[in-house]
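Table S7 (text form). Paired inputs.
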Amino acid sequence: MFEVIVLAIALSMDAFAVSIALGSKGYTRGLGLKAGIYFGVFQGLMPFIGYLGGRGVLSWVDAYAHWIAFGLLALIGAKMIYEGLQEGIEEDIKAITHKVMLILAIATSIDAMAAGFSLTLLNVNAYLACLIIGVTTFLFSWAGVQIGKNSGTWLESRAEIFGGTVLILMGIKILVF
């Protein structure tokens, strides 16, 4: 279960970074809750979709599953590190509408769908794992808005770099052990 918690924290870093940016734009009442719900629901749902897809193809690729999981986590991690070193689209957002939140929630959780494949190799309850991922993302997103409101975006890119590094390390762990 430790691996699920680490995975949840790493996957929530994209949403955390976006939430910091949203909070830095000017806090509105309820934005932390809105960000937490949108990001938490999508971040919990997408790994489950990836898990189901992974279960469907696991019998075909069983001999290579560890390499596939490593490759997916390494690519996702590298992408997060790259995005952490670049300027984000969050800076161009003028109004925080439900449509904007939906787009951001989908964009930040697509990577989690690919990471959901690794749940097939961790021998954990997928429902519980996805619930933990969703709740963790909710908490990080809510906290991100509060942090952004109070301190600006200085932590935003560091969160993505941290999350990407953790995902790469998890991929290495799956490959080696």
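Next pair, protein 2 of 2.
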Amino acid sequence: MSYVIVGLGNPGQEYEGTRHNTGRILLTLFGKLYDAEWKTDGKLSAQIAKIKIGKTPVTLILPDTFMNNSGKSIKPLVTSIKLAEKLMVIYDDLDLPFGSSKISFNKSSGGHKGLESIIKAVKTEKFARIRVGISPTSPTGKIRKPQGDDKVMKVIMGKYKPEELLALKKLSKKINKALETFVSDGLQLAMTGFN
């Protein structure tokens, strides 16, 4: 069974470049390193690409369901707790400042609907994730997490500015290395090296 790396987001042009699509953006950038050829998989309701990191097969997944149903694309591939150990999910996180990322394992969804859907689908929280910060920060770098549903929606559905996309591309280099380490050397080393 290959490793499975998922980039969370919403399908469709109107969501391209939004903060809620951070996982999708980063996994697409990662795929470019491996000349990933994306194909539509109707059964999984996702865009998928198969690559190899070293000799290890890896399936990259961009769910084409909306965020709240992301688990539907993962469920057929991750059918046990053992297989969940080879799953990595990349997603946007309002609890972290923009430009930062953190690898975590076996945590709750923190209210993220896409993650919640995956936890329900694979029936465990025991899988790895890369949380990518999207919260605005003050000039001193202090996090300014939006409060209230309207403000939260405005931030997560807002589009990245060109300079923010450049910062995300820079961050992607670190995330790419973390993904490669996760597949080749395991989660512990990925966490030690990149957190």
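The radius of gyration is 16 Å.
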